[in-house]
Amino acid sequence: MSKADLDWPNLDFGYHKTDYNIRHIWRDGAWDEGVLTSDETIPLHIAATCLHYGQECFEGLKAYETKSGDVVVFRIDENAKRMIRSCQRLHMAPVPEELFIQAVFRVVNANRKYVPPHGTGASLYTRPLVLGAGPRIGVRPAEEYLFLVLVTPVGPYFKTGFKPMALKIEDKYDRAAPCGVGHIKVGGNYAAGLHPSLLARQEGYADALFLDAKEKKYIDECAPANFFGITKDGRYVTPESESILPSITNKSLVTLAEELGLRPERRPMPVEEIFDLVEAGCCGTAAVITPVGSITYGDRKVVYSKDGKPGRYCVALYERLTAIQVGDAPDPYGWVHVIPPE
Ligand SMILES: Cc1ncc(COP(=O)(O)O)c(C=O)c1O
Fold first, then answer.
1. Summary mean pLDDT of the chain
2. Radius of gyration (C-alpha) of the chain in whole angstroms
3. Count of domains in the chain?
């Protein structure tokens, strides 16, 4: 099949129209068979709970083309499980793992010509979401839900791509609270981060790095990604916190860090530790690994990259992770799943 006519190597991380999205409705206790459609809009009741009470959650994963022309996804079972946890916390109808996987496979297959060619560095970003579609005016969960998966071909999330970026520690605004919903992927967390992220960007930073909401002493995460640091004595340190999203990329990097001889540590990470790190990075499906070149904390600043180049561990982790994801390296962990063509 011929590919869509797109400038693959220069794609941004934006919405680019494709041919189909898929929708399933949950009504009377069950999900329906789903339908592929080219409609980019959804009919929604004006009193739908997603609009009024934030009953909405989503996921994000990427489909890649391998050298041999297969289309693959990375650890999709983890995304499916995380979305179940998000639905449960917001008291929404959970999407069973098999249905989640089948819907992603169907919509990717229907949009194969938008899967970026191997070697372009781009991928087909896949965005499943569940929203409360039934009407309510009292604060109660909906009785009807919509599960939708849209896809869009994307390039790097941060404009710099795989180049060190500058972060600013945010200590005036919180993104999420302990025992709240920071550990699941719900729209409200991102709404809370929009303003501080924008302020950081206006000051010339790539994004804000949030602290824990309770004590403002520990690093939480960067707006769309987890944070990690490499210490002088070869440890891969990443924050443990109740209010951050458990990143599938970070979980994978913990494994790969060990392969590289780094000792992984997941624990509360005092913000003062940033001054002792030799490298730092943000990681996630969208960010992949984006090296951190500097962090500004109040009137102090730590610089990890003086020559504008990423550090050697960020490079090694990035190369190892992406080689597995796009099928260039064997996958000893069973992380990569081929989407069978229909
Ligand atoms: C707030 C936040 N943290 C971390 C991540 C990284 O998670 P993952 O690696 O599962 O994409 C994301 C992106 O999904 C995110 O939005």
1. 97
2. 20
3. 2
Q: Is 193 in the pocket of ligand 1 (CB under 6 A)?
A: no
93: CA distance to ligand 1 center in Å?
22
Alpha helices in the chain (DSSP H): 49-53, 76-89, 97-110, 187-202, 248-259, 312-325
Q: Is 153 left (phi over 0), alpha (psi -120 to 50) or beta?
A: beta
Q: Which ligand 1 atom lies nearest to the CA of residue 82?
A: 10
Residue 1, pLDDT > 80, answer no
Tokens linked to 100: 């989640």
> With pLDDT > 70 as the criterion, what percentage of the chain qualifies?
100
CATH number at residue 15: 3.30.470.10
Q: Is the pLDDT of residue 112 over 90?
A: yes
Q: Got the DSSP string for 53-101?
A: H--EEE--EEEEE-TTS-EEEESHHHHHHHHHHHHHHTT-PPPPHHHHH
User: How far is residue 111's CA from residue 17's CA, in Å, rounded to a whole number?
Assistant: 10
Q: Is residue 284 in contact with ligand 1, taking CB distance under 6 Å?
A: yes
Q: Please give the number of the atom of ligand 1 that sits closest to the Cα of 223.
A: 1
> How many Å lie between the centroid of ligand 1 and the Cα of residue 172?
22
How far apart (Å, rounded) are the C-alpha atoms in residues 286 and 290?
10
CATH number where 190 lies: 3.20.10.10
